[in-house]
Design goal:
0% strand, elongated
C-alpha cells in the first residue's frame, strides 16, 4: 500500500498496522492478579500469552490502569 492509498483505505474503515496482543479480555485478569502480592509476573504473562513488557505497559505493579490500557478500553 502506498502513501497515496492510505486516505482512501481509512475512508473504507481499514486502518492497518499490527493487532494489539493485549485485549480487554486479557486486561481484566491482569489487573486483578497484579494487585495480589503473591503473583508471579512471568506465570501471569505465560497464562495470558503476552510479554512482561506488554503487561507493564498496561498495568502498574500495584494493579492500576496505565494510559495505554485506558486507551484500549475506550475503543
Amino acid at each position: 500500500m502506498t502513501i497515496a492509498e492510505l486516505p482512501s483505505a481509512r475512508a473504507r474503515g481499514r486502518n492497518g498496522g499490527r493487532p494489539n496482543k493485549m485485549t480487554p479480555a486479557k486486561l481484566r485478569p491482569g489487573l486483578a492478579s497484579m494487585d495480589e502480592p503473591d503473583t508471579k509476573v512471568s506465570d501471569l504473562c505465560a497464562e495470558l500469552g503476552i510479554t512482561r513488557q506488554t503487561l507493564h505497559r498496561h498495568v502498574s505493579p500495584t494493579g492500576e490502569l496505565r494510559p495505554d490500557s485506558k486507551k484500549l478500553l475506550s475503543r
